[in-house]
């Protein structure tokens, strides 16, 4: 199941732990004042900026693409009284996960998919703010890539399906048999996402087994894949359709959607072969030779 749970890595990368001086007061009238106001936004606010430095941080309507959604503010004064040095980055990450996760879970309706699309994160006080006694974490959620980069979200996380699925046409990198970040499909990649399917109607009860999920997802993905590829003979191109399955924790949190993907197997079946170009409208090249072996629905892990 390599790559099935793209967002379930380390809490946050160093490039996403921001801190700026904040001045409260009148309504913002400049980019600097907007940045300051955005940093202290209330729960339900959506923020965006130009990675990685965030110096142009601003508030946007959550219907617009954004990088961070504020879920709560948490004061950690009890753990870090005056005259205590601020934590280092690694400790900040631990604090954010411990202190912000309960508020994030409540904000998301009481359930947080640990393998889902959203990652818990926080904006921390600057060193100057810390010296002035600011001990507030601005907690929130964001989407991240396997390498720790940021993905935009559209719509409020409070109302969103947490299934960790991708837009059709997304291609994911292949790095030593590990699934990497999204990249253009004309570059070598592991998979192309051809659509998503919902397993909820097939399994209305508790979490089904992975085998049952994969069998049903494989069935549902056939039509999705054919529609996306225009009925391309994938086997003739050395390509294989794959489907994902959900972990029990994801199912318990309400996630029901999985990706349908197209990739290629290495000749010895030990893992994935790199693929170049999209399976939709462009000749697709793979290092894997054409095979008549029945295509599996599981993802080879190498």
From TrEMBL:
Residues forming the Septum formation-related domain are 43-260
Q: Which residues cross the membrane?
A: none
Q: In what ranges is there compositional bias, type Low complexity?
A: 282-302
- The signal peptide, as residue positions, is 1-19
Q: Which residues form a coiled coil?
A: none
Region feature Disordered, mapped onto this chain: 271-302
According to its UniProt record, what is one Pfam family this protein matches?
Septum_form
Which branch of life, at top level?
A: Bacteria
Q: Which InterPro entries match?
A: Septum_form (IPR026004)
Q: Which UniProt keywords apply?
A: Signal
**Full protein name:** Putative regulator of septum formation
The protein's organism comes out as Actinokineospora auranticolor
């Amino acid at each position: 199941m390599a790559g099935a749970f793209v967002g379930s890595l380390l809490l946050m990368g160093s490039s996403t732990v921001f801190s700026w001086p904040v001045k409260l007061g009148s309504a913002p009238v400049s980019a600097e004042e907007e940045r300051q106001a955005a940093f202290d936004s209330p729960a339900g606010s959506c923020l965006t900026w130009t990675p990685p430095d965030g110096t142009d941080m601003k508030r946007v309507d959550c219907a617009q693409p954004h990088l961070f959604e504020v879920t709560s503010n948490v004061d950690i004064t009890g753990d870090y009284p005056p005259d205590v040095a601020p934590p280092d980055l690694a400790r900040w990450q631990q604090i954010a996960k411990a202190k912000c996760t309960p508020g994030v879970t409540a904000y998301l309706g009481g359930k947080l998919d640990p393998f889902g699309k959203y990652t818990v994160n926080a904006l921390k006080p600057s060193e100057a703010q810390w010296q002035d006694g600011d001990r507030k974490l601005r907690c929130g959620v964001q989407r991240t890539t396997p390498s720790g980069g940021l993905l935009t979200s559209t719509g409020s996380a409070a109302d969103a399906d947490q299934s960790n699925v991708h837009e059709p046409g997304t291609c994911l990198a292949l790095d030593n048999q590990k699934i990497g970040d999204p990249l253009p499909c004309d570059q070598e990649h592991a998979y192309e996402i051809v659509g998503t399917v919902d397993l909820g109607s097939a399994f209305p009860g508790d979490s089904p087994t992975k085998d049952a999920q994969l069998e049903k997802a494989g069935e549902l993905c056939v039509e999705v894949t054919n529609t996306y590829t225009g009925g391309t003979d994938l086997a003739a191109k050395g390509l294989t359709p794959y489907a994902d399955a959900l972990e029990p924790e994801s199912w318990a949190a309400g996630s029901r959607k999985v990706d349908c993907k197209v990739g290629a197997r290495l000749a010895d079946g030990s893992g994935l072969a790199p693929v170049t170009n999209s399976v939709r409208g462009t000749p697709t090249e793979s290092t894997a030779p054409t095979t008549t072996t029945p295509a599996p629905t599981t993802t080879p892990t190498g």
